[in-house]
Amino acid sequence: MPVITSIEDLKRLHRVRTPRMFYDYAESGSYTEQTFRENTTDFQKVRLRQKVAVDMSDRSVASDMVGLPVSMPVGLAPVGMTGMQRADGEIKAARAAEAFGVPFCLSTMSICSIEDVAAHTTRPFMFQLYVMKDQEFLENIIGRAKAAGCSALMLTLDLQILGQRHKDLKNGLSAPPKLTLPTMLNLATKWRWGLEMLRTKRRFFGNIVGHAKGVGDTSSLASWTAEQFDPQLDWDKIARIRDLWGGKLILKGILDADDARIAADFGADAIIVSNHGGRQLDGALSSIRMLPEIVAAVGDRVEVHLDSGIRSGQDVLKALALGAHATWIGRAWLHGLGAMGQAGVTAALEVIRKELDVSMALCGERDIRNVGRHNVLVPAEWGRDYS
User: Fold this and answer.
1) Tell me: the pLDDT tens digits for 22-34?
2) Which of 110, 193, 209, 319 could bridge across to 324 with cysteines, CB 3.0–4.6 Å?
3) Could you report the per-residue pLDDT of 221-248, keeping only the tens digit for each?
């Protein structure tokens, strides 16, 4: 068993153990990847304030997210095609999150279905929704999430149309992978991955195949998904989805203060400051850079969460200090899954919790709920060099 001390350790193993097209799917952004890179590098510009001669005993990083108690304010964000990183990947990640006491959110574009994950977990998980043109499919999948007892619906707002990710096109990304010569040569070096995939029946988009009209195999799935993301999604449609769902609603993909105000007025239970991990609008500002402005815009009218760019417990601490109520990780836990399966997801969570706890203490805090703006130093140019 390798010694894991950072998310970077898991990332290196992930790259070695997973087929190239699926590793590249996880570790890439759109177009020039500027936003993808700055999501992480901007965290490095925020500095922590060290405090000494304070009592560091009896510390707690426990908190809450959308009314649910959590062992730390970190959730496992929805990631498409997770079951291609590792066989039954969504089930393994959901189990790791449940055991750790943090939320797991299942993607619409998951390999394991809503019903698969519900059958293999004992506590409610959240469900992330992409809005499709097919109204019957949309109503049915919301009904399936309700029937599975999902605790919240996370509605993604920033993927009405797809940003281009060059690596996915060049790799011929598909689930399961198409057996071209380059793909077969790469798969031949990933024997552990291949053996696990041979043992599972879950190799397709489980929430779609057999549930969407006319989609019974991978060939029909490709054409269906290419034309189904709804470019007409607006606040009126979001309101209809809210009423159809009837439960807790999280709006993901907010990166503008005006949009945040609308979301707060709309009555969302939480918003997630996010740029889709740099996978959609390249050239947008990083999530951490936009966070203070959005927090200032909505005050305490809605829970503000953050994702995109978090790779450590210190990143979590910085986001909380700048006003986030909670955070979500995507690539960090995906690296763990690709590296070591369920144990790797647990390892990723342990790395983040330990870094969060130690860094919080060295900043002079004992309770994560007391962390605030006084714990960080922010570059003077932030908020002034763009208008």
Assistant:
1) 999 999 999 999 9
2) 319
3) 666 776 888 999 999 999 999 999 999 9
Between CA 63 and CA 326 the distance in angstroms is 8
Return the C-alpha torsion angle 315, 318, 319, 322, nearest 10: -170
Which residue is listed with tokens 């619906």?
A: 153
Q: What is the pLDDT of residues 282-294, one digit of tens each?
A: 999 999 999 999 9
Q: What count of other Cβ atoms lies within 10 Å of the Cβ of residue 223?
A: 11
Cα–Cα separations (whole angstroms), residue 224 to 61, 169, 209, 364: 44, 18, 10, 53
CA–CA separation, 29 and 142 (whole Å): 29
**Cα 88 from Cα 86, distance rounded (Å):** 6
Please give the helix or strand (H or E) that residue 128 lies within, else none. Answer: strand 126-129
* Residue 185: pLDDT band with limits 50, 70, 90: confident
How wide is the angle at C-alpha 333 spanned by C-alphas 331 and 337, nearest 5°? 110
Contacts of residue 198, defined as CB under 8 A and 6 or more positions apart, other chains included, come to: none
Q: CA separation (Å) from 242 to 36, 148, 303?
A: 30, 17, 17
First to last CA, the chain: 50
Residue-by-residue DSSP string for 330-350: SHHHHHHHHHHTHHHHHHHHH
3-state secondary structure of 4: coil
Integer Cα distance of 370 and 348 in angstroms = 24
Residue 111: name the closest of 132, 85, 131, 130 by CA: 85
CA pair distance 200, 146, nearest whole angstrom = 26
Burial class of 266 by CB neighbour count within 10 A (0 to 12, 13 to 18, 19+): middle
Check: CB of residue 61 under 8 Å from CB of residue 313: no
- From the list 279, 79, 84, the residue with the least C-alpha distance to 177 is 84
Which residue, chain included where needed, has tokens 């006491």?
A: 101
Q: Find out whether 324 and 304 touch, Cβ atoms under 8 Å.
A: yes
Q: For residues 334 and 79, is the Cβ–Cβ distance under 8 A? A: yes
Which contiguous run of DSSP H or E holds residue 43? helix 34-45
- Listed residue (105, 40, 100, 43) closest to 72, CA to CA: 100
Supply the residues annotated as catalytic: 276
* 127: β partners: 106, 153
CA 193 to the chain's CA centroid: 23
Buried b (16+ CB within 10 A) or exposed e, 141-151: bbebbbebebb
